[in-house]
Fold:
Amino acid sequence: LKAADITISTDGNLGKVYYNVAKKFVSSNMMFTKADVRDIISILCFKSPYDFTSRKPKDVGVVVNENYRGRVNICSKYEGFMITIRLLPNSYFNSEFEDLNLKPKTVDFIRNYILSEQFGLRLIVGATMSGKNTTALACLNSVIRAKRRKVVSVEMPVEQLLPGLEQIDCTDSDEYNEAVTALLRQNPDYVYITEMSEKTAEAAIR
Structure:
């Protein structure tokens, strides 16, 4: 279906499946029992078990198949759970600027300002599915290939192992914020922060 994400959500004693296809809701005939949904959560979280006694959301990364990885968010909802799997093609992690369908002026701006040697904070922002991650990863690949620099990332979770990048994997927001705060002690040349919350933004700016 070329879906951007897959959602499995409990509704009473059933687990229903639906897709986000070009920002449109597409339902599926696939059904699970409530117990099946709990088993799916346990499988997805086998490296970092899900706490079924807590209502705290959890993020994990998974390999879907040879072509896709998934960023998984699990939330407790009224009398059940909602699992959303954002599908990430492996090809995203090998993109060049020329692969991104960007205008030449935009590529020049990225090379001259985003990837400049000047100190400072660069933000890549936009709506869901606007290409933020793909653009950021193309920037990372460019830095890693062209420059001998120490590049450190803080990710929750690590979605793909990127050669030449020191990747810090976090399992929850507390670990994430502590890792961002500790970055300066790693003495990096470049820092890649994948998500920004109020706490994380404060630490990143500092």
The two ends are 43 Å apart (CA to CA).
